[in-house]
Amino acid sequence: MTTTAMRVHAAVASIRSNSWRRSFGLLFILTAVSFLSGTAAWAQEGTVVGKVLDAETGSPLAYTNVSIVGTTRGAIAREDGSFVLAGVPVGSYEVQASFMGYTSGKVPVEVQDKRTATIEIKLQPTTVGKTDEVVITGERPLVDVEQGATIRSVTADDIKELVVRPTLDSVVEQQAGVTRDRDKIHVRGGRSDETLYVVDGVKMRDLLSGESSGGSTVSARSVAEVNIITGGFDAQYGDAMSGIVDAKLKEGDEVYHGFLGYTTDQFTDDWDVDLTEFQLSGPVPLVSQMLKPLGGKGAGKVTFFASVSADLSNGHLPTVDTTGGSLISSYQDRLFGNQFTYKNFFYPRGSNEWRGLFKSAWKASAHHKFSISLMKSMQFSEGFNDTDIAQINRNVNNYPWAWSRRLNNYYTVTTDRNSFSFAWNQTLKESLVHELSVTRFFTARHQDVRGQLWTEYSTLTDGDYYDSVGNIDPNPYFLDVGQPSAYRDRYIRTWALDSKWTHFWKTHEMRWGLHSQYEDVQYMSLDASTVDPDLLPLGREFDLFHVYPNTGALYFNDKINFEGLVASVGLRYDYWFPGEQVDTLYERQDRPTITAAAAQEYYDNTNSLFGYRYKGYLSPRIQVSHPISENSHLYFNYGHFTQRPAYFYVYAKSSSQSSEDFPNIGNPNLDPEISVQYELGVGHQFTDDKAIKVSVYNKDIYDYPTSIKLENANLFLYRNLDYARARGIEFELKKKRTDFTSWGATYTFSVAKGKASDPNGLRLVQESGGDARETALEEEYMWWNRPHEFKAYANLSVVDGDEGPSILGVRLPDDLRINTYLLVRSGRAYTPEDKQGRPTGLGYSKNGPFDSTLNMTITKGLEVAGRRLELSIQGWNLLNHRNATVIDPSTGERWKPGEGQLSIDPRDNPDNLELTDEALIEVTGDEIRVSSQDPRLAGLTPGTPEYREVFDQIYEENLASTARSIRASIQGTINRYSDPSMIAAPRHVRVGIGMEW
């Protein structure tokens, strides 16, 4: 058996046996073994290592483009000028190096089997004024044969070729293995809070909910590059179990550039979309002059990049703006220590997003670079796509259709996100690089009604307003009076210090570092309908806590280039101090859930440092890539990943006691969630422009928090009891741009199952009238489970000045881009039931009708007064396929009155509105009664004509009243299921204009 086959055999032996993996994983692995075993037998390869130096000074030239002439194999020189080209087939080659400001150089090299050839390339500086402009373009190979993880890198140029909405999350959701469900991002079957966005080193996570918000905070046009890691991220990344989105923001250069764009649907649709974006970048001469004495050899100018954008829209659903009202935000922001509120200018529509960014960088010398970035995002909306962490059921359609006629009395939700980042990159010596960064992240969310305090809410309900006899609600289902009762306010502030080191030694690339983070978390929530200003000023149902946890990590990772094998081995240690408040809770033991036994369990599960309790976890990571040839490789990764639970599950009601029925109590002794994952994949580049990748993955997740009802107590406590498993296979076929076109397609088959999709599953059972003590023994599918997902894109691009292709005899003009994107996937998951509502299968084991969407953007550039003018038209859901967002579990289709579960009760059938009162009563089976105690019958003798006449009159009145009540019930059903949010948005077209300079 060859070495390759032995490695794959070991991987197979480590995989747990189950039927799904036999049918897919083993078939794939055995096919790969049969192919690779034969290939490995004849493949003869060597390695080329070397350095690129300045021919005059001997200084290393970092980031030089190095390639083997006549092949697609290449590399970028490290900070010390060194490079490694592994897996090079035996033969004679020329290695070429090119760097801006230097003439390119070539060096011949002879590659021998299982040997390492060492070379040195010296480049001559060009003489100013004697050479033409040199433009060097570097491209990643479609298949990186040294990569042992699933990483998809998207550059700013790639983003231009995508049909995207304004923000980064639109780029992320188009990648294989990524699913968007209820406006949340799920990576490879994981929960939405298991993906971490890192933007210029800032970890952008709402610690209370666990959700990472960087995707909606950052403008896609401001991103220089984003790496989307969905499998096998190494030890430098932590506190995430499903995916990492690592984005780098653009920097300015020594030439001024700008962009001003405006997109609207005023001429095409009625969503009231106004999207404006302004960007400017370039040098900062005054600051550059001031800092010049502090710079060293090779110092550059101080540069900046700035971006401001506004995304205002009403969308396709009724909003407060389209119904004649307006938002009112009472959120208090600060600027230079002064408090202020935002006025109507910032929220003219139902959804209003403002984003600002400023970044400055300075290369102080050839060995030092400093950068600083500031970001700010404000969102004012009604929270239609938002689910609060305190919401018990989060698998719901959050559009408030019942309030749609009075949205002026609904919530205003204000979300503030801002960040700061300072980074210092330094090359301490040729083989040692250090990066020091200080970051700050702040996010806040405020929710109230019309800017009011909870004591000012109107808590009158329709039930109070309409009496049950003779005063029938004229708008059944819709709410005609009062205001919703929730008042919520929270914020999270973090400061972090990161120190990252990289050392190159022989064939090793070693990385180690530390991360330390201080956290300030405050949460407040109450129900205004339970407030008594004198006795219960915060109401009967409230929560309020303020905590100061501390977290951090240490990690080490070593990437080793063996002959014919690239291995990366890492170890990460994460620690978590829950905070002094938690330590005090267990010392006092004065809470219902903090008993002596619970305190002892806490002390057993934690360690002590300087008198403070903490928890720590080790996570090993392994990645292996075996280059089969210069264009193909087999890779495998295995790792343990941990993530702290959402802080709401830890600290809820830790410092407050409300008298609500069955409250959810946080558990300060929760352990981090743990995921054990492995992946096996193969990549092959057929030609210079086409490649295929296939991977199989498995994720086992343990210690999910879930709320359980305590014995002899009417409360729920979060415990680490749930688990889940996600498995899948991904196919990706890609063609990069040649001859005007580029395209790609991905297909994913995945299954995600577990004990529960949400930590509040048992609480939901209790609120639905069940017994939360009866724990389900069977696993269920996750509510975001969509087994089949196909994505494809196709682009046609004609560069400015090129002669375009001819289509049907018509030659396309230059400076033209046509970008299309297609998504086809399984419909929304649901639990099958019969018409009486009894489950007939596992939870979420069925999927509704397939979802599909086709989007397209056409962009044409024109030169006007020496500037590039850009005209565009964007179409979303061009086929106008109305995907169902809510499913009737008995039919598997969208809800329709009179069908499925709405066909059993006559009060749900709209056809019955046409019946006479008598026929309607007969259909519903209602019994019309006349009370013998009715005062109108007093003094009348039964059986007499006078008695009969009054009796019949009362009977007819009661019949008519009952019929009106039944008709109101039917109309209420019609109104409820006419909710336009039960189907996805229709076709939508926008036009745009922009100018670049």
Automatic annotation (TrEMBL):
Tagged with keyword Signal: yes
Gene3D superfamilies assigned to the protein according to its UniProt record, in alphabetical order: Carboxypeptidase-like, regulatory domain, TonB-dependent receptor, beta-barrel domain, TonB-dependent receptor, plug domain
GO molecular function: siderophore uptake transmembrane transporter activity
TonB-dependent receptor-like beta-barrel domain location: 388-763
UniProt subcellular location: Cell outer membrane
Keywords tagged on the record: Cell outer membrane, Membrane, Receptor, Signal, TonB box, Transmembrane, Transmembrane beta strand, Transport
GO CC annotation, single: cell outer membrane
Membrane topology note: Multi-pass membrane protein
Entry superkingdom: Bacteria
Domain TonB-dependent receptor plug: start-end pairs: 147-243
Chief location bin: membrane
Keyword hit for Transport: yes
TM stretches of this protein: none
One GO-annotated biological process of the protein: siderophore transmembrane transport
UniProt record similarity statement: Belongs to the TonB-dependent receptor family.
PANTHER family associated with the record: HEMOGLOBIN AND HEMOGLOBIN-HAPTOGLOBIN-BINDING PROTEIN 1-RELATED, TONB-DEPENDENT OUTER MEMBRANE RECEPTOR
The protein, known as: TonB-dependent receptor
Organism this protein belongs to: Eiseniibacteriota bacterium
